Amino acid sequence: MKSEIKKEAIEHLKRDILFGFESKEDLFESISELFYDEDDFDDYWFKMEIEKQFSSHQKNSENWKKPTDFEKLVKVFDQLNKESIVSLHKAGHTRQDGEADCREIIEELEASGIIAKGYCYYHSQDLERIIEASGTLFIGYDSNQHIDKIGYEIANRVIELLQENGFQTEWNGSLDSRIEIKSIVWEKAYDNIDYNYSRVFSIIKKPFWKFW
Q1: CA-closest candidate to residue 97, choices 63, 121, 66
Q2: In whole angstroms, what is the distance from residue 122 CA to residue 120 CA?
Q3: Would you say 37 and 51 are in contact if contact means Cβ atoms under 8 Å apart?
Q4: CB 121 within 8 A of CB 99
C-alpha cells in the first residue's frame, strides 16, 4: 500500500472522527470507498487505524466540559424543530446538499399533513472549516416557500435561540447571507444517535401523535 494513500486515508479518518457522526463501521465503509480503485488498499491496516483513533477520541471526550457547544447546538435545533423549522446537523457536503436534504424531509412531512415553516442546516464543508481553525460555523436557512417575510422570521429566531444558549452570532441582515456562529469549539464524539431524519420526525410529529 502506497505511503501517500495511507496518509490520505488517515487525513480523512481524523477529520471524520472529529466530526463525530459516524460509527467505526461507517467510517470504514465511507472512507475505503474513496480508494476503491487502489488494488493494494490494506483493509486490515485501516480497520486497526480506525479502532485506535476512534477509541482515543472517545476516551478524550470524557474530559470535555459539559455542555459542549455541539450539545448546546442540539438544544437550539431541537427547539427549532418543535417550532416546525426543520433543522439538520451535517446535512450533506455542500449548500445544495443541505437544502436538498431539508426539502426531502419537508416534503415527507407535507405528505403526513404537516407543513414546515422553513429550515436551517450546516453541512460537512462547514465543519471542515471549523476543524481547520476558522472557529466559525455557517448556518443556512430559508422559508418553505421562499417567502422573504418568513425567511427573516426564521433567521431572527435562529439567532435568538443561538444567543440564548451562549453563542456569539453575526449576520448582515441579508437573506442571501448565512448566519455565522463565531468562536465555536467543535467537540463531538460518536453516540449512535441520528440527529437528522429520525430526530426531526420524532420531534415535529410528536404533537400530532399526541393529538390523535
Answers
A1: 121
A2: 7
A3: no
A4: yes
What single-letter DSSP state applies at residue 84? T
182-87-66 Cα angle (round to 5): 55
Secondary structure E strands in 35-157: 85-88, 118-121, 137-143
pLDDT at res. 211: 41
Mean pLDDT of each 10-residue bin along the chain, 212 residues long: 92 98 98 91 97 98 98 98 98 97 96 95 97 92 96 99 98 98 97 95 71 42
Asked whether the bond before 67 is cis by omega within 30 degrees of 0, the reply is yes
Bridge-based pairing of strands 179-182 and 137-143 is antiparallel
**Contact status, residue 84 vs residue 115, Cβ threshold 8 Å:** yes
Helix axes 3-19, 24-32, angle to 10 degrees: 140
CB 184 within 8 A of CB 167: yes
Predicted confidence at residue 206, as pLDDT, reads: 66
Q: Distance between CA 122 and CA 108 in Å, rounded?
A: 20
Beta-carbon-side half-sphere exposure of residue 191 (alpha carbons within 13 Å): 11
Give the cell for residue 198.
429520525
Distance of alpha carbon 66 from the chain centroid? 19
- 64 is written with which cell numbers? 470535555
Predicted local confidence at residue 157, as pLDDT: 99
Q: Where are the domains of the chain?
A: 3-62, 69-205
